[in-house]
């Protein structure tokens, strides 16, 4: 994978030496463009310098501000939640915006399908930073799109109805969400957006689907890629172990504790049997939580359970599947991310993939200042990428699996063991409302 590096401070972009070429839409339908040319001409902000706010001058400060800053009054987004029941008994939250009461959109309106971070949800500031302008009407300066945040089992008020949680490698829940959205809006182009752990799930999903992927394009932000290497780095020093690793482990512990009564309905499950030890810990790191819970209850069998966290991290890593991606795919990381230190910039030469590494930004931060307003730099590149890939080029319509209803379940041909069904309304969700006891931004 080659690279393009501009002036000092500019992001470094890595492109394949064998660029993918796609036809431009009208009025230049007879012409083709490469993904690199598309990025350079229609996503200029991704190659411009990220200029951090002067008081957030390193990755630690950027990351801590993402967690501790007050974003409750910016980027307001409201959602209609629907609950999606999965065949294995689990439940997902699908948070649709704009709410139906706000305005009615055409059925062919592009939809951004979002996967949040480790223990977040649709209320997270990093999600709203992109969705607020994405779903804003065009006459107000937005894209005028629709968005759906896929909220993991047990996160952000979604009920836990089975003894299974979620993980970096369990893609079937997202697969079922995309299936449902595709069935509900068959004429709408679907665009994938993932943050941190959600970016890892998105990358693996896109790679696993290959030529049959239902998404037109995807954008992965702060993806953890090589989970084994990044976990080792995260737990290697006192600072990262006792700040980031314990913050993430603590969030997951609090999330599980909110579902104690539901989990105890499955007393024979490994998840239920792990609760006494989990609650006996005053604090625990992400790695300790994964050892106690995730490697056993983070997905279906196979591949779960895993023998150790290292076996799980090795299996779940997304950098090793980048070669299987077959849709326009943009990934952005920062070079001072204290949580993700290893980015696979030289490990793939896939013509569908563009990797960008910014100078600074921390983990899910990218806070810069325009005038007296502090905003996330990542918003504009993501919006430009989605607009370019859905409005400027014709991504080939690929043959996808047929959708049908079998015994009340929505299923795909050849995957009848999977399935989902609409379980009704889950209420209104207001972005910016902090989950009680949880650290935001992770």
UniProtKB/TrEMBL annotation:
Gene3D superfamilies to which the protein is assigned, alphabetical: alpha/beta hydrolase
Active site: 196, 337, 363
GO terms assigned for molecular function: acetylesterase activity; monoacylglycerol lipase activity
InterPro entries linked: AB_hydrolase_4_sf, AB_hydrolase_fold, ABHD4
Gene Ontology biological-process entries: medium-chain fatty acid biosynthetic process; medium-chain fatty acid catabolic process
Superkingdom as given in the UniProt entry: Eukaryota
Family statement: Belongs to the AB hydrolase superfamily. AB hydrolase 4 family.
Protein name, entry field: AB-hydrolase YheT
């Amino acid at each position: 994978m080659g690279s393009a590096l501009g002036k000092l401070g500019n992001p470094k972009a890595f492109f394949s030496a064998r660029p993918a070429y796609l036809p431009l839409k009208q009025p230049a339908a007879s012409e083709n463009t490469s993904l690199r040319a598309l990025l350079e001409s229609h996503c200029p902000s991704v190659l411009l310098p990220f200029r951090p706010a002067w008081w957030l001058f390193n990755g630690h400060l950027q990351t801590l501000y993402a967690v501790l800053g007050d974003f409750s009054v910016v980027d307001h987004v409201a959602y209609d939640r629907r609950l999606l029941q999965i065949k294995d008994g689990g439940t997902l939250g699908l948070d649709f915006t704009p709410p139906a009461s706000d305005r009615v959109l055409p059925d062919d309106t592009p939809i951004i399908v979002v996967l949040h971070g480790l223990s977040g949800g649709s209320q997270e500031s990093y999600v709203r930073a992109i969705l607020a302008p994405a779903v804003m009407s065009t006459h107000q300066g937005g894209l005028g799109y629709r968005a759906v945040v896929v909220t993991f089992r047990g996160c952000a008020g979604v009920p836990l109805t089975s003894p299974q949680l979620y993980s970096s490698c369990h893609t079937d829940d997202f697969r079922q969400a995309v299936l449902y959205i595709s069935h509900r809006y068959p004429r709408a182009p679907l665009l994938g957006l993932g943050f941190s752990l959600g970016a890892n799930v998105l990358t693996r999903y896109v790679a696993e689907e290959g030529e049959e992927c239902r998404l037109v394009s995807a954008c992965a932000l702060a993806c953890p890629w090589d989970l084994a290497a990044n976990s080792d780095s995260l737990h290697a020093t006192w600072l990262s172990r006792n700040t980031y690793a314990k913050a993430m482990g603590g969030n997951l512990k609090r999330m599980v504790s909110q579902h104690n009564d539901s989990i105890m309905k499955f007393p024979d499950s490994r998840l239920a049997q792990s609760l006494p030890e989990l609650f006996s810990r005053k604090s625990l790191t992400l790695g300790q939580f994964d050892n106690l819970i995730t490697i056993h209850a983070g997905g279906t069998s196979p591949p779960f359970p895993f023998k150790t966290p290292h076996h799980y991290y090795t299996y779940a890593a997304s950098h090793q599947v980048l070669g299987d991606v077959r849709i326009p795919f943009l990934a952005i990381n920062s070079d001072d991310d204290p949580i993700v230190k290893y980015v696979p910039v030289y490990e793939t030469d896939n013509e569908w993939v563009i990797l960008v590494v910014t100078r600074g930004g921390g983990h899910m931060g990218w806070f810069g200042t325009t005038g007296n307003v502090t905003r996330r730099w990542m918003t504009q590149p993501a919006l430009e990428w989605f607009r370019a890939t859905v409005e400027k080029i014709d991504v080939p319509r690929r043959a996808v699996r047929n959708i049908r209803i079998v015994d009340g379940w929505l299923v795909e041909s050849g995957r009848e063991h999977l399935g989902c069904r609409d379980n009704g309304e889950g209420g209104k969700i207001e972005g910016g409302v902090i989950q009680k006891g949880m650290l935001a931004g992770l």
